[in-house]
Amino acid sequence: MRVLITGANRGIGHELAKRYALRGDDVIATGRSDPGLDGVRWTDMDVTDHAAISAASAEHREALDLLICNAGVYRDKLQQLDNGFAPEVWAESFAVNVTGVFLTIQAFLPQLRAASTSKIAILSSQMGSTTNAPGGSFAYRASKAAAINLGRNLATDLQPDRIAVGIYHPGWVQTQMGGKVADITVDASAVGLIERFEALSIGTTGVFETWDGRAHPI
Prior knowledge:
It is a single chain. The chain is α/β, with parallel strands linked by helices. It has six helices and seven strands, in the order βαββαβααβαβαβ. It has helices at residues 11-22, 50-59, 87-107, 109-114, 138-158, 186-199, and strands at 2-5, 26-31, 40-44, 66-69, 118-123, 163-169, 208-210. It has a seven-stranded parallel beta sheet with strand order 3-2-1-4-5-6-7, sandwiched between helices. Strand 6 (163-169), helix 6 (186-199) and strand 7 (208-210) form a beta-alpha-beta unit.
C-alpha cells in the first residue's frame, strides 16, 4: 500500500509514518522539517504553500491508496475572549486546518483516482463538534468544524470515483499540542487510527469517528 501523510515531522503524523513503514508500506511523509524516519520517502511540504503542494504532487505521480491529512495547528490554546484571538490566529488556523487539507486533496486527486480503491483520512477533533460546545478555543474549534464539514462534502462528491473519505478525532493525545496530561499516548492513538483507516470503505464514507471506533456527534 502507498500512503502519504502530511505533518509527519512530529506527533501523531510521525508515529503513523513510522508504523506504516515498519509494516512494509510505501510511505511518503511530508512536513516542514525532515525528522529522518527510516524507510520513509520524505518531501518538504508546507500545507499553506500552494506551490509546495503542487511540487510534491508533481514529484509523486504514482497511484495513492491512502492520503492522511494530519497537519494541523492550535494557535489559540488558553487565549481569553477579551484580549485573544488576533486576526493572524484565525488566518493561520484556517490556512492549515482547512485550506491546507483541501489543497492537498485537490492536488493528489489524480493519484487517488489512479488506485483501484483509495481513501482519504482527515484528522479533525472532537473540538470541532457543534453538538458539544463547551466554549473557548474559538479559532481552533471553528477550523476543525470546517474540516469536518469539508470531509463530509468531499465524501459525497468523491463517491462516484470510489474514493472513501473518513474524518477522525485522534483522542486527546500526549503530543506537543495535547500536552503531557493528555488522556492517551501517541502509540495508542496511532494504533487505533490505523484500524479506523483500514475499516473505512465506500460504504462508510463520510464517517466522523474517534480513534477507538466510536461514532462522534457532529
